[in-house]
Specification:
Layout: H1 3-17, E1 21-31, E2 34-47, E3 50-59, E4 73-76, E5 79-83, E6 91-95, H2 106-118, E7 123-128, H3 135-138, E8 143-149, E9 156-166, E10 171-180, E11 185-193, H4 204-208, E12 217-219
Parallel strand pairs: 6-12
Antiparallel strand pairs: 1-2, 1-11, 2-3, 3-4, 4-5, 5-6, 7-8, 8-9, 9-10, 10-11
Helix pairs in contact: 1-2
């Protein structure tokens, strides 16, 4: 990881920890241009440890790692619930470590980790964005477009990344494309919207869970928020 990437990662984590937002992440695989599978995750964050995440999958996916979550989840500030059909009641829960709850939160830390993964390109360039697509919003802050080519992670060919970054370091959007060594095309993207205006409600799948403990298996061990 380069020094500039490390700074971007830390700045984004700090900025994301102090905002509510909707974060959409996408992952797509293709062979010879034909899509073979995709995942799209929508995360709504009201506070660092209050969020809900929903994942939708189509087709069959082969490559790892993937940025999208493996399960739907909900956190209410003290407990994280995960939708797991293999559990007897369909839901598992984990009490958040009080020390972890003082940090930036699971979603801000995830995003920072992905910036470490994807923005550590061999060649990078930065340019001021001069033609914002939504002038009423974009003109309020300075935006920069970061482009990168080539990387050791993941092992790939024709690696390309582009991100739009606020002056504060908050990465509004990112898009990555590359081909694996065995010819699988991969695209990764994420974007933020509804910044400062997102709230979270308890998901219906948690309310439907039933059982002797209210449909939840609470595991009071250390866990990330």
């Amino acid at each position: 990881m380069t020094r500039s990437t490390r700074r971007n990662e830390a700045a984004h984590r700090r900025a994301a920890a102090n905002r509510s937002y909707r974060w959409t992440l996408g992952y797509r695989e293709s062979i010879a241009g034909d899509e073979t599978g995709r995942e799209v995750e929508v995360v709504r964050v009201e506070a660092p440890h209050v969020y809900v995440s929903e994942v939708r999958r189509t087709g069959r996916l082969r490559a790892f790692p993937r940025p999208t979550a493996s399960e739907d989840s909900y956190a209410d500030g003290t407990t994280r619930y995960a939708r797991r059909p293999a559990e007897p009641d369909g839901v598992a829960a984990r009490v958040l470590d009080p020390d972890v709850r003082d940090g930036p939160g699971r979603q801000a830390s995830r995003a920072a980790r992905y910036l470490d993964w994807y923005l550590s390109a061999d060649e990078t360039s930065v340019a001021r964005v001069t033609t914002p697509g939504n002038a009423s919003v974009e003109n309020e802050v300075a935006l920069y477009r970061v482009r990168g080519l080539g990387t050791d992670f993941p092992r790939s060919r024709d690696y390309r990344v582009e991100a739009v970054v606020e002056k504060s370091g908050f990465v509004r959007s990112m898009r990555v494309a590359y081909e694996t060594r065995d010819g699988l095309g991969v695209e990764v993207w994420f974007a933020y919207d509804a910044v400062g205006g997102t709230t979270v409600t308890r998901p219906a799948w948690l309310d439907r869970a039933d059982g002797p403990t209210g449909g939840r298996t609470v595991v009071p061990t250390n866990a990330s928020g």
